[in-house]
Amino acid sequence: MYYRSIPGNKTLQQIQISIANEEAGASKFVENKVALLDQSMANVMKFVELDVGVVPKSATLVLAPSQAPAGGSRDWEGPMLVQGAMKIVDVYR
Amino acid sequence: MFRPFACSLALLVFAAAIQGCADNVRGGPSTTLHVTSDGHAGLSTGTQAVAPGDDFVEVGSKDDRDKRIVKALIVIDERYESFVQDLNHDRTLLDAGSGIAAVALGVAGTLTSATQAKTNLAAGAALLAGSTAVIDKTVFYEKTVTALVAAMDAGRSEVLVRIRAGMAQELNVYRPSDAWRDLLGYERAGTLLGAVGYVQATSQNTADDNAKKLRGICDLTDAERKEKVCATRSLASANPKRTLATLSAAAKSLGVEGGSTDDEIANALQGHIRDACSPEIGKIRDAFQEAALLTDCDAEDH
After folding, report:
1. Cβ separation of B215 and A5 shorter than 8 Å?
2. What ipTM was predicted for this assembly?
3. Is A19 helix (H, G, I), strand (E, B) or coil?
4. Which of A6, A26, A46 lies at the smallest CB-CB distance from B270?
């Protein structure tokens, strides 16, 4: 397990892309916490290392409450800073 | 409503100057989770409380439970919003010349009286930010209130997720006592002590689980992300081009060290890819190509 941070001013789409960027290296998003970093609040994401060569199915981020996209199931739900505001976000795959 | 700064910020009563501020001894809005004498569901309207939680003990159905939860959430949220507004209001009243009341962050227990304001603020800043820099007290208050409100919001959101998940469950799974406990937690998360606890917990977890310095996720272009995916897939055992020779050549080209077997080298290369940002992604692609390790990603694309 390891952590990566994302500033709190990103859009939901930008956060989704960031997760995809990280998962491209055989990792999978686990959860997000909003935490104090360098005297400002940011998103701190936990990732788990997957087996060598494995890229997980793409994650889709949607503001809660939401319905699963066709064929998708919810992986995680919780708080994220989106464009500076605290939101509840659903992560589907 | 005017409230002196000292009154609105103190979390624990260390000094006589902050007597009589009931909300602020708690460091948050007054609890709303009482049953009134006329039996109204779990909401404090200022009448005499019968006993906390009685209203939830009488729940007879899932719908009944959920209605009471929703009512309680509404009142807790109203009180919380009012508390935050007061915090922000008092921030603007700060008189930098008059000294600042003690910010009693009870977790540390080291902040005592207004006469040690500057030292206390530095200690408070250290508590929250993990550094020992002494900073201007006005700036500290600005950042502290903002950070604590954000931490309260985050803590409340986490509990709210749990409550929502519970409301989707049947009565015998998410029992009235579970709902009651979660509502108490939701209320507690909206207090300054709850915020400091949240910050401490998340900071500690991050420090415990991650030995490396926390860094941001790399910004990649679409093309770079695809190259990163392709490099990762090239390391899969299903790739016929993945041999000890091609792995060794790629690792040597990239200066990646790590073992002598193909699995060990592949693991080391995967770690390198995982941490790579631009322009390293391009170098990895070139090294894999030159080593004849790169799989045909266009053919594999879904």
Report:
1. yes
2. 0.94
3. helix
4. A26
Q: CA-to-CA distance for B221 and B278, rounded, in angstroms?
A: 9
User: Which residue in this structure is represented by tokens 């690792």?
Assistant: B251
Separation CA A84–CA B150 (nearest Å): 10
- Does residue B237 have a pLDDT over 70? yes
pLDDT > 70 fraction of chain B, expressed in percent and rounded: 59
SS3 string, chain B, reads: CCCCHHHHHCCCCCCHHHCCCHHHHHCCCCCCCCCECCCCCCCCCCCCECCCCHHHHCCCCHHHHHHHHHHHHHHHHHHHHHHHHHHHHHHCCCCCCCCCCCCCCCCCCCCCCHHHHHHHHHHHHHHHHCCCCCCCHHHHHHHHHHHHHHHHHHHHHHHHHHHHHHHCCCCCCCCHHHHHHHHHHHHHHCCHHHHHHHHHHHHHHHHHHCCCCCEECCCCCHHHHHHHHHHHHHCCCCCCCCCHHHHHHHHHHHCCCCCCCHHHHHHHHHHHHHHCCCCHHHHHHHHHHHCCCCCCHHHHCC
- Calpha distance B254→A50 (Å, rounded): 22
Chain segment B115-127, per-residue pLDDT in tens: 344 444 444 444 4
Q: Which of A9, A15, A52, A76 to mutate to test the interface with B (most CBs of B within 10 A)?
A: A52
| Average pLDDT, rounded, for chain B | 71
0.90 surpassed by pTM:
no
Distances (CA, A) of B180 to A93, B55, B80, B198: 33, 9, 18, 21
Chain B residues in contact with A33 by the CB 8 A cut-off are 154, 202, 205-206
Residue B200 main-chain phi, psi, to 5 deg: -60, -45
Radius of gyration of chain B (CA): 28
Q: CA B236, B237, B239 angle in degrees (round to 5)?
A: 75
- Compute the C-alpha angle B239/B241/B244, nearest 5°: 105
